[in-house]
């Protein structure tokens, strides 16, 4: 269903029903709206006055004016042709929206616009028709409002940093410490990808296909793959900070496996799995048709990687080293 703004008629109905003490859920049902839309409307467009608090409340006409002013701000770059032309010109020479917004006062522009408004215009139907996003240093399919974006620091807390990881993991003294990553393929393959895991001490590799890049899908598959191993063989996994791993907390509650995270833009901190990915690319180039790869074929590729002797293992293969460690757990 297409998104439609509340109109004056609906806002007057909300005012009348609030005055009649009708519950929010009933108001939403009467208007055919989700109750969260009604809660948000009341919160954003209610009248408040610190000096006259007894007048505070929701008024349909006042709410309509507030919503109209907000839409006008949002569409400033559509209404004001000169300002729009200036912003587009600066985008085309490589400036970021933040640089453009910050420089407006120096460029003799009488009007101001925030960088969030510029981003909103770039990703609006008007901006997309002009392909403005291609001028950004880094583009996305869509941009969420600033206050709706979740800081990465909350997803990957400092106490899970690789710098807090025990020293024995770094020195590869203990068995069961893994590294994990995703191998990404050409866009024609859709959201399909291959997850790669490497046990740090033995360099033993595991590969499995994912049909979706969602974190929930990936972590569930990862737990299914790791769960058959005894607990000492799956102590921890070190990831990068890709949002594919944001559901990492499920690993501890689901299979008792800890998670650690590299610094931003520091993939070399999980060098074992990065090195293994390079080896795997011999058999899984970026144009691989993942849809036709069976689980048996994926295992055959992993077996081939694990049967190659390694100098760091005294010329043993990862399979031999892994099997020895598993025997030691008995």
UniProtKB/TrEMBL annotation:
Record key words, sorted: DNA recombination
Cellular component GO terms, alphabetical: cytosol
Residues in Integrase catalytic domain copies: 162-326
UniProt feature, compositional bias: Basic residues: 136-152
Highest taxon, organism lineage: Bacteria
GO biological process, one term: DNA integration
PANTHER family: TRANSPOSASE, TRANSPOSASE INSI FOR INSERTION SEQUENCE ELEMENT IS30A-RELATED
NCBIfam families reported for this sequence: transpos_IS30
Protein name: IS30 family transposase
């Amino acid at each position: 269903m297409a998104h439609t703004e509340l109109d004056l008629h609906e806002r007057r109905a909300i005012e009348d029903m609030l005055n009649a003490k009708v519950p929010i859920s009933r108001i939403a049902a009467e208007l055919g709206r989700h109750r969260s839309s009604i809660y948000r409307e009341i919160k954003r467009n209610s009248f408040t006055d610190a000096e006259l608090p007894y007048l505070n409340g929701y008024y349909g006409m006042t709410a309509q004016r507030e919503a109209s002013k907000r839409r006008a701000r949002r569409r400033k770059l559509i209404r004001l042709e000169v300002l729009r032309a200036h912003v587009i010109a600066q985008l085309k020479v490589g400036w970021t929206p933040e640089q453009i917004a910050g420089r407006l006062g120096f460029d003799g522009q009488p009007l101001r616009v925030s960088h969030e408004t510029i981003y909103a215009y770039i990703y609006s139907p008007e901006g997309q028709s002009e392909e403005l996003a291609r001028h950004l240093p880094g583009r996305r399919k869509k941009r969420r409002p600033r206050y709706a974006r979740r800081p990465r620091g909350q997803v990957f807390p400092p106490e899970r940093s690789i710098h807090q990881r025990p020293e024995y993991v770094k020195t590869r003294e203990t068995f069961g410490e893994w590294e994990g990553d995703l191998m990404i393929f050409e866009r024609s393959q859709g959201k399909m990808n291959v997850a790669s895991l490497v046990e740090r001490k033995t360099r033993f590799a595991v590969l499995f296909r994912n049909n979706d890049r969602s974190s929930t899908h990936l972590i569930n598959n990862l737990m299914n793959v790791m769960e058959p191993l005894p607990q000492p063989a799956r102590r921890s996994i070190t990831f990068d900070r890709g949002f594919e791993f944001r559901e990492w907390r499920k690993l501890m509650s689901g299979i008792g496996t800890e998670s650690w995270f590299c610094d931003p833009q520091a993939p070399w901190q999980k060098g074992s799995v990065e090195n293994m990915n390079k080896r795997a690319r011999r058999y899984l180039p970026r144009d691989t048709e993942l849809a036709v790869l069976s689980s048996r074929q994926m295992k055959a590729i992993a077996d081939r990687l694990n049967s190659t002797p390694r100098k760091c293992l005294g010329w043993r293969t990862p399979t031999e080293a892994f099997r020895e460690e598993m025997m030691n757990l008995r």
